[in-house]
Design goal:
This protein has one domain. It is built from 10 helices and 2 strands, in the order H-H-H-E-E-H-H-H-H-H-H-H. The radius of gyration is 20 Å and the shape is globular. 75% of the residues lie in helices and 2% in strands. A two-stranded antiparallel sheet has the order 1-2. The longest helix has 30 residues.
Amino acid sequence: MFYNLCSLFLIFFIASFIGYFVEIAFCSIKSHKMIFNRGFLMGPYIPIYGVGTVLVAKLLYQYKDDPFIFFWMTVILCSFVEYLTSYIMEKLFKVRWWDYSDEPFNYNGRICLKNSMIFGISGLLVVYTLYPFILKILSIMNKSILEIIAVCLFIIFITDLVFTVLSLYRVKNNLIRFAGTDVTEKAHEEVTKVVKEHLFSLSRLLQAFPHTELFNKKEYKEFRKIVLDYKNKRKINSN
């Protein structure tokens, strides 16, 4: 069971990682300049791509022998995920992270026909190339090593998620000023400032779970010590 969860998370993580660079390439070409801050999180991954890949692989894989049906089911599923993600993030942070109002055949500016078609094509690429490739890689890995890698990446991802969400709440009013535009890059800049200035979220994690088995394991004690030492030095310097 644990191994299966680790494998599933790695599929999610790899797809999120690849999606990040696809997004960078697409936005850089569109804007005629290099753009790097495209992720909702601080790290080089965009979770919506990972979620879409996992859902397509797990819910629609049985339809892969019929590309036409698979294509349209992927379009519907991924469009729903994008719409729901847009809605939830707008409710949380009071600002839209993307707006397709200028695109033809859009729905509430949250989804549009062009992107939905891209989702369908991407789904075909995922089910016929990416997903089998990832499964092949995972199948030849040592189970223990795979689980260790998955746990480490999960810790990084969750820490990043907590960092980002709490930091975004702190700069929410700043983001509202950019309502009606793509705020992803601006949000990344604001979160970076918070992270550099406060170490807010990670400190909260350590305070909230001071006795958790995870942070008390030998391999994480040094990490914990470094973080707390850095935090204490900042406190001394500020005084």
